[in-house]
Write a structure and sequence with these properties.
The complex is a heterodimer. Chain A is mainly beta. Chain A contains 3 helices and 31 strands. Chain A is 8% helix and 36% strand. The relative contact order of chain A is 0.07. Classes of the chains: A mainly beta, B alpha+beta.
Chain lengths: 420, 346
């Protein structure tokens, strides 16, 4: 009782002195080192309580401000998050500012962005327990000059996605490096208006994945040592479906032969090792002017969604797919996964471009998928001719004849409202 | 003694020109959070045991599991105003309303009142432009709770309700993490105070909704409001109780407007579509959280379901819910396992 009483008196006295005082700092956190400069920028100093000071800054950031991270490696104990519009987080450079999450105790990702007009640039994130950087409902975001990586050998214990924008409009990912993700390195999901360019995706299960999204351009990227290079997927039972209008061009997609290390159950766990590009259940996809080399299952795979589903709004077939003007080195010489079961029928190896030939599902009629293979005569193609899923090897009628689809015209260039 | 103390305190308050008692609307509606919990005036004592006039205790039929913490919930609605009844969702509270929730532990949680210690108090304040969430952390002596936007990690040790000693690093969520669970589209919203969660006998020994109505803090109460089954009770089916459990523990994120909307896994009590409930549904972005299982809920196969795998983990990146627990809710897990086991296998 005495302690209570003294506390009470102290509290009352304090109330007299500063009862209307409003807090602008954390309980036990001195952020005097982070006072705003004239231009609204705040610089974070290294030292004790780094995580708490950074998180406090992220919470108390003003719209339009810049938070500058110092050079060095900083151990994080929990996920960070930003929910203020218009904030830029910038570091001393990839590999110079490193946020190390190997001791992370909570949260599903290293950094979570839930506000609009945010720019993330010039730092590295390592060893998150879940995803690396996730932005959800974060329109006009820029991921620029970042590294997100899991060190060491490919490991199913690594986080799922490296860079993970979802449910967003206007997404720019440029000059980003992602290594080691147990799902997709750069994953854009359920979004619209997307550019992924000049980035490096290596040693992930999927290098770059555009899923249930519309109007995307993927260009100028180096995609290597993943299980599969670039995936364009549409999946059922999600709030946003009907993925369409993606252009994959001028990428270097080679040696994606890492054995699949995704935890079973995830859709990418079915990606055969040695795959360059997979187009699954999407509409209007162009694969053009890329260099393919040494993807040992197949350079380009065009496929329907292979699993049973109940979603009545979902179309599992690829439609209006154009493959043209790419260059193909060696590949298809060591097929993996389901395609390894097909290869013996074709003499043991697969041509650069493979279509599963699925043209219907459920009780529906066959459709004309309109697959356009506009490549030099020497570029091999095969239509496996499954007709429908589940696949039945006894009913396969492979054909090397190109489908003779008609190009649907140019996709409109993706223009982002926030960036050139 | 206590009365004397209160009188003394009242004298001091009057002496320095502060309002005598009761919630201070200027502090409640200020742009920024107050530095200490005491400044809001929700309590008559510094240790927040005695609510001020107009601050009403309530509880929920089923609480969210938070590492076995006791939770003390209070609601304040500005004098002369009332929350408007809503049959399906959280009541429409007027500006200036506050939901106050204090998390506490006792040395032995089989007797949660004995030696109970307050650790943190979370406020949800209905500001003019929507709800705001502020965390406060108590000092050792429980004489002051201070605003802690970055949250905190607290060493907490106790004997759990099953009699097992546990020692955890208890996470006080930071302000953004508050929003993660309380997200409602672009806004934030309370989770608990829905008719179906409140419709039972409350801490004053009265039917809670009727009591709120009688106090004038709730308007539009119909004759027969809905109620969820008690998870702990034995009056409802396993399915009903499991669905009630998922509703209060998961559905604040796993719904169309929540933080987990992109998963397409929606666990609200009213969800009727099996696939949306996870039955026969493939994971979307689970990563290693899949635990090598193919379906979120594999009917008849509790050991092969992602839902139970994630409930049974305490590891970041796997554990669900992602925030708010360091321990496994063994009772909840068993209930959900029973629900899945009772389904006809494919």
């Amino acid at each position: 009782m005495r302690i209570l009483m003294m506390g009470a008196a102290a509290a009352v006295l304090a109330a007299c002195g500063g009862g209307d005082e409003q807090a602008d700092a954390g309980a036990d956190i001195d952020i005097t080192a982070g006072q705003p400069a004239a231009d609204g920028a705040v610089a974070l100093e290294p030292g004790d309580d780094f995580q708490a000071r950074l998180q406090t800054m992220l919470i108390e950031a003003e719209k339009g401000s810049t938070i500058t991270l110092p050079e060095g490696t900083f151990m994080m104990t929990d996920g960070l998050s930003l929910d203020v519009d218009g904030v830029t987080i910038t570091g001393a450079g990839q590999g110079a500012t490193i946020l190390d999450f190997s001791g992370q105790r909570g949260s599903g990702e290293g950094l979570l962005i839930t506000s609009d007009d945010v720019t993330l640039e010039n730092f590295s994130i390592q060893e998150t327990k879940g995803d690396g950087i996730k932005s959800k409902g974060a329109d006009r975001i820029i991921y620029s000059d970042l590294t997100v990586e899991w060190l060491g050998d490919p490991d199913p214990e690594n986080g799922a996605y490296g860079v993970y924008p979802v449910e967003s409009t206007d997404v720019l990912v440029e000059r980003v490096t992602v290594r080691g993700a147990s799902d997709a390195g750069i994953y854009v999901g359920q979004s619209n208006n997307i550019i992924v360019r000049d980035s490096v995706a290596e040693k992930n299960v999927a290098g770059i994945e555009i899923e249930n999204s519309t109007h995307a351009e993927v260009y100028g990227n180096v995609v290597t040592q993943n299980t599969g290079g670039v995936l364009v997927f549409d999946l059922p039972d999600l709030p946003v479906m009907g993925g369409n209008s993606t252009r994959i061009y001028n990428n270097d997609i080679y040696s994606n032969n890492t054995p699949n290390f995704a935890p079973p159950g995830n859709i990418v766990a079915g990606v055969p090792a040695g795959t360059g590009v997979i187009i699954m259940a999407n509409d209007k996809v162009v694969v053009e002017n890329n260099r393919f080399e040494d993807n040992q299952t197949v350079q380009v795979l065009i496929t329907a969604y292979t699993e049973p589903f109940t979603d009545e709004d979902y179309n599992p077939l690829p439609r209006n797919v154009v493959v043209k003007g790419n260059t193909y080195g060696t590949g298809g010489n060591n097929p993996d996964g389901r395609l390894a079961e097909i290869a013996p029928l074709l003499g043991g190896s697969l041509p650069p471009i493979v279509w599963d030939g699925v043209t219907r599902w459920g009780e529906n009629e066959d459709i004309d998928n309109n697959i356009v293979i506009d490549e030099g005569e020497g570029v091999g193609f095969i239509n496996i001719g499954f007709g429908t899923y589940p696949m039945d090897l006894a009913n396969v009628s492979p054909s090397m004849e190109r489908p003779g689809g008609e190009a649907f015209g140019e996709l409109e260039p993706v223009t982002l409202s926030h960036s050139e | 003694m206590r009365r004397a103390l209160l009188a003394a305190l009242t004298g001091l308050l009057v002496a320095c020109g502060k309002p005598v008692a009761g919630p201070d609307m200027d502090v409640i509606l200020a742009d920024k959070p107050a530095r200490t919990l005491a400044e809001y005036g929700f309590f008559q004592d510094v240790s927040a045991r005695e609510p001020a006039r107009g601050v009403v205790a309530y509880d929920l039929i089923n609480p969210l599991f938070s590492d076995h913490a006791s939770k003390h919930r209070l609601v304040f609605v500005p004098v002369g105003e009332a929350a408007a009844y809503n049959g399906d969702d959280v009541f429409d509270f007027p500006v200036g309303s506050v939901l106050i929730k204090t998390f506490a532990f006792a040395p032995d949680m089989r007797q949660p009142k004995e030696g109970e210690r307050y650790r943190e108090t979370r406020l949800l304040i209905r500001k003019a432009d929507g709800w705001a969430a502020y965390p406060y952390v108590w000092n050792e002596d429980e004489t002051e709770a201070t605003y802690a936007p970055a949250g905190d990690w607290l060493d907490v040790a106790f004997v759990d309700p099953a009699g097992e000693p546990v020692s955890i690093e208890y996470r006080v969520p930071n302000q953004n993490q508050c929003k993660t669970c309380h997200q409602m589209g672009d806004d934030i919203a309370p989770i608990g105070p829905k008719a179906r969660n409140l419709n039972h006998e409350g801490p004053y020994g009265k039917m809670q909704l009727a009591d709120w109505s009688a106090r004038g803090i709730l308007s539009g109460l119909p004759d027969a409001p809905p109620a969820v089954p008690s998870v702990a009770g034995m009056n409802a089916s396993v399915e009903g109780r499991a669905r009630a459990y998922l509703d209060i523990n998961c559905a604040h994120c796993h719904r169309a407007e929540g933080s987990a909307s992109n998963s397409g896994l929606w666990l609200g009590y009213d969800e009727a579509e099996p696939t949306k409930l996870g039955i026969g549904k493939h994971p979307t972005a689970a990563g290693r959280g899949s635990g090598d299982a193919v379906f979120v809920v594999a009917p008849g196969e509790a050991d092969n379901s992602i839902l139970t795998y994630r409930m049974a983990s305490t590891e970041a990146g796997i554990a669900m819910p992602e925030l708010g627990r360091a321990l496994i809710d063994e009772d909840g897990l068993e209930l959900v396992r029973d629900w899945i086991s009772g389904m006809d296998a494919y």
